[in-house]
Design brief:
The termini are far apart. A hairpin with a 2-residue loop joins strand 2 and strand 3. This protein is of the alpha/beta class. Helices cover about 40% and strands about 20% of the residues. The structure holds adenosine-5'-triphosphate (ATP) and magnesium ion.
């Protein structure tokens, strides 16, 4: 029956007692089982129970880690924690008010438990970040998590060998156990399949109280999410749109990168032959339709091209010439809807073949409205996105 059996034994002292722990691991078909047994001398089992309680408490506490759920298992992940620590709000360019709105929502949720109590409503909240790929949803979540002192539970997928319902149940059980906490569900539209939809709704907002759980979810496709999830307060009460950046945001992004490469933080200190502001303004103007991720790609490819040119050409190469040329090359890769060949834009190819994304200029000010796919019109401007 056992295809593989591994076992081991370790003796140790804890709180004045001597213990021997045995571990056996075996595989049956596709499942790996692990069995622990701890043996000790004692008049009753109180020392064993104290040890077990200490072990569970240790295992259930995060130490510079984030809980990650995948394939029916929760793991305390250090790498994700490190990635979160590397995030900086300063690196994220957002429309005015968006960052502050997010910070306020997260901060006030944890600070205002008594207000929820006074109002007699469950202390829970849902925030949904929506918009086309590559415009800062995940970056912003990382920066929010870095600011927060509460345990973070990050769900990669509801899928488990026992079905998605099992996954959803384990996720909410774990979140209730670790509350107050932040539960992150990325790409919600892909997670909540028709099979698991009603189960998910029950767990999110059913009889069991999700006291102290702040759920932050993201989606590129709000139109695919059931209205019962999307538009019912107490499930996702607040929504923020991360749209394709407008000219002002693209210029701000370019300005940051130009400062970065000129100061030597990246690219060994480049000297531009033009005023930095002039370079940023031109880049901003000529990058219509670029997502932020694509703007980043512009600067990465610019630095690589410049390094290559400098190593192969005798004559001095002006950085701005390489940058502007690179803008032209990348802009030509953008497939415009008006070309009649599809809706996909360069820099937004994560979910190839999936539907359209918001076009034109991003909005100013705090946006609590819902991003929705636009009419297939020519790319010009848009005046905000509304339900
Ligand atoms: N608003 C922004 N400001 C600065 N950089 C950004 C911004 N948005 C995206 N980027 C850059 O693009 C990369 C991808 O962004 P991010 O992962 O946040 O996109 P996303 O909105 O979560 O996309 P997806 O919907 O595909 O998950 C980031 O690592 C970051 O470098
Ligand atoms: Mg993301």
């Amino acid at each position: 029956m056992f295809a593989v059996l591994q076992h081991g034994k370790i003796s140790f002292a804890y709180d004045g007692g001597a213990y021997t722990a045995y571990k056996a691991t075996w595989r049956e078909q596709f499942t790996v089982y692990t069995f622990y047994d701890i043996v000790f001398d004692g008049v009753d089992d109180s020392a064993g129970k104290a040890l077990a309680a200490a072990v569970y408490a240790f295992g259930g506490t995060l130490r510079e880690e984030i809980w990650v759920y995948q394939s029916a298992t929760w793991k305390a992940d250090k790498d994700l924690y490190k990635a979160v620590q590397a995030a900086e709000w300063d690196d994220v360019v957002l429309p005015r008010g968006l960052k502050e709105g997010l910070q306020r929502d997260v901060g006030s949720f944890f600070a205002c438990k008594d207000v929820y109590d006074e109002l007699g409503i469950t202390w829970k909240r849902g925030i949904l970040l929506l918009g086309p790929p590559g415009n800062g949803k995940t970056e912003s979540i990382k920066a929010l998590l870095k600011d927060s002192e509460y345990p973070v539970l990050y769900v990669k997928s509801f899928t488990t060998p026992y079905g998605p319902e099992y996954g959803v149940r384990s996720i909410f059980l774990h979140a209730r156990k670790h509350s107050p906490c932040i539960l992150v569900l990325e790409d919600l539209d892909a997670m909540v399949t028709p099979k698991v939809r009603s189960f998910f709704l029950n767990e999110l907002d059913g009889l069991a109280a999700n006291h102290g759980i702040l759920t932050i979810a993201t989606t590129n496709h709000p139109e695919r999410i059931d209205d019962a999830i999307l538009n019912r307060p107490s499930r996702f009460d607040v929504k923020y749109t991360f749209a394709i950046p407008d000219v002002a945001l693209r210029t701000a992004f370019a300005r940051k990168w130009i400062e970065k490469v000129a100061s030597g933080r990246v690219g060994r200190g480049l000297r531009f032959g033009m005023a930095h502001e002039e370079v940023a303004t031109r880049v901003g103007k000529e990058t219509e339709g670029f997502s932020f991720a694509f703007m980043k790609e512009l600067f990465v490819s610019f630095l690589l091209t410049l390094a290559h040119a400098r190593s192969t050409q005798a004559a001095e190469v002006a950085p701005e010439d390489v940058l502007f040329k690179q803008v032209g090359i990348l802009a030509a890769q953008i497939i415009k809807k008006t070309d009649g060949v599809g809706a996909k834009k360069a820099g937004q190819d994560k979910k190839e073949g999936e539907n359209e994304e918001k076009e034109g200029e991003g909005e100013e000010g705090e946006d609590r409205s819902c991003w929705s796919p636009p009419e297939p019109v020519e790319r010009k401007t848009h005046d905000g996105v509304q339900f």
